[in-house]
Amino acid sequence: MEAEWTEADLALLEELTRAEALLPQNAPRALLSIRLSVLTDDTTSPVRQELDLRILARERGSRVVGVASDLNVSATKVPPWKRKELGEWLNNRSPEFDELLFWKLDRFVRRLSDLSTMIEWSLKRGKNLVSKNDSLDLTTTAGKIMVTIIGGIAEIEAANTSTRVASLWDYAKSQEDWIIGKPAYGYVTDEDDTGKVVLVIDPEAAKALHWARRMALRGRSAGFMVRCLKRSGLMTQGLTVATLHRRLRNPALLGYRVEEDKNGGQRRSKPLLGKDGRPIKVAPPLFTEEEFETLGAALDKRRKSQPPRRVGGATQFLGVLLCADCKTNMTVQITNNTHGTYQYLRCRNCKSGGLGAPNPERVYERLVQDVLKVLGDFPVQVRQYAEGAEARKEIKRLQETIALYMKDLEPGGRYTKTRFTKEQAEATLDKLISELEAINPETAKDRWVNVHGGKTFREHWQEGGMEAMSADLYRVGIRCEVTRTKVPKVRAPKVHLRLLIPKDVRERLVIREDDFAQ
């Protein structure tokens, strides 16, 4: 979708721009928000929206400082702060505007909760929301009343929605009819003769599951099954051994309603029991009980006794440690053999995962040492929004007072009648001028400031551990390349780490407060 400007549109735009140039320096700064999902004969074009909003800005005496145009964007699916152009202004450029103008409320938001969030953000930041074709203006009495009503309704609606959803799920879990939710792999939803939604067996999925069962009974590995299923197209290319195991061990294949049972960090499903103490049946069985039991026994024969999963995953610094050769993530591989259990780091694209880097903990320790040496003494800073309203108010007071004293010190003024009053007035004037000169002009602007939290990153990471350091390194874009070199007559390779740090790392390390975090 592209905005097309006619000669008449461009002429009007030029006229509005000339009028805007005549505005005083301290005129309110307006950001125009334009959104359209689909352009039809019944919708208002982006060009018309922009021109109408520029006319509105002229009527309000505001200077247009930017146009956030988000076309082909659904207001229902994408809230204002997540849109490409408007989101950049709201999250990073909010000090540059005073009011946000939009053509119509439904061009801005479609959800009451999103509108409530934007109003709350605007009041916090001292911004104004103005709709050309709706009675929304946060500076008017009607607008303030509307804010109160919308906020109350949004809270009630959010609470009611949460209650309804929880109640619906609790009810659905106890029913034999399929009411809500995503069917387990092997089943799809359909309608019976009466129009009721029911679960039926997916033929393609059933074919894949029965084939996998036969392979398991023959003693074939899950890795072999995954490769064959992906090549045949019976399962998607994203299939993993863990996913296949989860599907084959799911009691839903017996037609039971199930829920997830996270035991020891592993995702497993267990059947839900009805009032009679028996599993609730919601679909025809894909396996008989005997087939399901023999399948489980066959999988158990090849199962390795793996240690419980670590919270947060087996690999520390995931996404930070990269293979120097194939540039893919280094991950921890846990292997069991007759000699015991051991771990090593491997990559994805090198043959056989490359030369395995044994003892991942030693690699982590070396990485931590290198990072602390370079970044440990950097201060932890948080980006905060600073308003200049108080400073502007003080500057205005001082300027007005100085002008008054200067006028009264002119010949014939009230401070020139006696020597004493003149000297006192001149001393006061000098003091006022000094106070005005002492005010940093930057403090009179709405701006982002980096506030030192009183800690260094060394202290921050000592408190949060490797998890906190890993999250910060990934956020900042710091990466560490791992090179593994074969050593003659030695089984373990030589491991070398190369830290890659962006040039603007100081700025990237600043923690940005998220006004729209859910």
TrEMBL record:
Pfam annotation, one family: Recombinase
Magnesium is among the record's keywords: no
One Gene Ontology term from the biological process aspect of the record: DNA recombination
Protein keywords: DNA recombination, DNA-binding
Domain Recombinase per the UniProt entry, residue ranges: 184-305
InterPro entries xrefs: DNA_bind_recomb_sf (IPR038109), DNA_bind_recombinase_dom (IPR011109), Resolv_N (IPR006119), Resolvase-like_N_sf (IPR036162), SSR_resolvase (IPR050639), Zn_ribbon_recom_dom (IPR025827)
GO molecular function, one term: DNA binding
Spans through the membrane: none
Classification via SUPFAM superfamilies: Resolvase-like
Protein name, as recorded: Integrase
Organism: Streptomyces coelicolor (strain ATCC BAA-471 / A3(2) / M145)
